[in-house]
Specification:
Layout lengths: L1 H18 L4 H15 L14 H15 L7 H12 L3 H15 L1 H14 L5 H4 L3 E5 L6 E5 L8 H9 L32 E5 L2 E7 L9 E5 L9 H13 L4 E3 L16 E5 L10 E8 L2 E6 L5 E6 L2 H16 L11 E2 L2 E2 L1 E9 L5 E9 L27 H4 L2 E4 L2 H13 L7 H4 L9 H11 L5 H23 L6 H18 L5 E3 L1
Parallel strand pairs: 2-15
Antiparallel strand pairs: 1-2, 3-4, 4-5, 5-7, 6-7, 6-13, 8-9, 8-16, 9-10, 10-14, 11-12, 13-14
Helix pairs in contact: 1-2, 1-3, 1-4, 3-4, 5-6, 9-10, 10-16, 12-14, 12-15
Length: 514
């Protein structure tokens, strides 16, 4: 048995040498550390590499259980521990990244780091592939819909409570630098496989890592060295533009800094970005206000309310964004229910997204957000209404505002049950159905589909109709987040706001419809 475990250790170490940038000296070190962990005496190093490293990890995990090194339910933490031994150290990865950046370019460097994080299972592609993804056509362009089976979502109350909670744990949150090498707990994931690279933004030290959940290709997180609350300020635009200047093949955006319209972590200042695949990035322009040759401010033709600032000068783009942010923070238009404050409580903020466009210009999209609530809309006036909560109640952050919906994993089971009802051959007892904890929340959706298409659908037809209903809800959710609705009244309100944008940015009043 000891020889078998020693062989498994050699297979894992050789995988590290082959896939995880593990240098010879660190390989020898890791091999001895693993031998000590499992209580085996290592002999001559085998050169064999594994055909499937997961089988090696599974076998070592079972041996770990036998030895009392781990237990049922803690397999993922033990797996991270094992991969952490055979992944190049954080400092070595940083140096490898920088060498590649200097020799073959920044895209080559990010490809290296991304693949490393896949190969050491920090990005758990096996779990991510379980997510259900499709795209839906809409009146203002396609949106993506994902049923997320790899990470639970938080509701708005949890997000707000986390932001305001006294920070007395270690690491303070899942974005702190102290996560590097953290062994994990029952409530905090293991991070022995996390690898990051430093990046200076607006003269301040930040770090870049890949998201373990990878909601889209090369999904990155850029986080502050300091644990401090999320904030959208004029400096935010400078940081975002600094980043895309350094990594022009990526976009980078910030969640809004208020609950309901913000992201799932408001306690640590951070940004998200990655490959330029999210639908809103490719939305057409509805109207443009030109400032000077090559520089313009536009309104995007998108489901929510987006102002774009584009130009060749980083400083001019950042300055215009700062002026628009200041205007929006105090902007009120009672005709469309936009109020900047309730007493001293602010409601207006912005979700900004920066990238370098195909012409080499700097572009920042500013999604206008408002988190006000009232008695009729306790979860947010510009938030999914109650009739949509059966699909999505959680906050609509950066990724979803840009057209990629991350829906809760519960929907796989619940929508499957709804499809079965639509193939049962008879109308259900809706009073009883509403009491069903598995599918009751979808009763109105099932009734709408059944009244239109009947209750004797084939399995394929039921799946199609349920998916169409989900698509419709997602499109309506995006419309809900628009502070200026896509109707005549909303368009007039948007025009009033843009008139003030023109004034504060000292733009030409002449406009051109695109």
């Amino acid at each position: 048995m000891e020889k078998d475990v020693a062989r498994l250790i050699d297979l894992l170490v050789n995988y590290g040498r082959e896939k995880l940038d593990l240098c010879l000296e660190d390989a020898v070190y890791a091999r001895n550390q693993l031998g000590e962990l499992f209580g085996v005496v290592m002999g001559d190093m085998r050169k064999e590499t594994p055909e499937d490293v997961q089988t090696v990890i599974d076998a070592l995990t079972e041996e770990g259980k036998r030895l009392g090194l781990t237990e049922d339910g803690a397999e993922m933490r033990f797996e991270a521990k094992l991969f952490g031994y055979v992944t190049a150290s954080p400092g070595y990865v940083r140096r490898s990244f920088m060498r590649r950046k200097m020799s073959t370019g920044i895209e080559s460097a990010t490809e290296y780091l991304y693949q490393l994080c896949i190969d050491n299972r920090y990005i758990r592609m096996a779990d991510i592939r379980k997510n259900i993804l499709w795209y839906a056509d809409g009146p203002k362009g396609k949106i993506g819909v994902t049923i997320n089976l790899s990470k639970p979502e938080k509701d708005n109350k949890q997000v707000a409570a986390e932001r305001n909670a006294t920070q007395n744990k270690y690491p303070k949150c899942m974005l702190c630098l102290e996560n590097l090498g953290f062994p994990g707990t029952a409530t905090h994931p293991a991070r022995q496989t996390l690898r990051i690279v430093p990046i200076d933004l607006a003269g301040e030290h930040w770090h870049m890592q890949y998201s373990p959940y990878s909601y889209y290709p090369e999904h990155i997180i850029v986080f502050s060295d300091e644990h401090r609350p999320m904030a959208v300020t004029p400096t935010t635009f400078v940081r975002l533009l600094d980043f895309v200047e350094l990594l022009p093949h990526y976009f980078l955006g910030s969640n809004a800094d208020l609950p309901i319209v913000g992201g799932s972590i408001l306690s640590h200042d951070h940004y998200q970005g990655g490959s330029k695949v999210l639908p809103m990035l490719h939305a057409p322009v509805r109207k443009t206000y030109r400032v000077e040759k090559g520089f313009k401010i536009s309104v995007k033709d998108w489901y929510n309310s987006v102002v774009s600032v584009t130009g060749p000068s980083k400083s001019k783009v950042a300055l215009a964004c700062a002026k628009i942010l200041a205007l929006w923070r105090s902007y009120t238009d009672a005709e469309v229910g936009v109020y900047s404050h309730t007493g001293d409580v602010p409601h207006n903020t912005i979700t900004p997204i920066a990238m370098v466009d195909a012409d080499g210009n700097y572009n920042v999209d500013l999604i206008l957000r408002n988190n006000r609530t009232d008695e009729a809309h306790p979860d947010g006036i510009f938030h999914p209404t109650k009739d949509m909560h059966h699909i999505k109640k959680e906050g609509i952050g950066l990724i979803e505002a840009m057209g990629m919906f991350i829906l809760p994993g519960r929907l796989k089971r619940e929508l499957g049950a709804a499809e079965q009802i639509l193939t049962a051959g008879q109308e259900p007892d809706y009073a009883a159905l509403r009491e069903d904890p598995a599918v009751g929340k979808h009763a109105d959706m099932i009734r709408q589909i059944g009244e239109k298409y009947g209750y004797s659908l084939s399995a394929d037809e039921a799946h199609k109709r349920v998916k169409e209903a989900v698509n419709e809800v997602c499109l309506n959710i995006l419309e809900c987040t628009a502070v200026f609705k896509n109707d005549e009244k909303g368009a007039a309100a948007f025009e009033r706001f843009m008139a003030q944008v023109v004034e504060v940015c000292k733009l030409s009043r002449a406009s051109k419809n695109i």
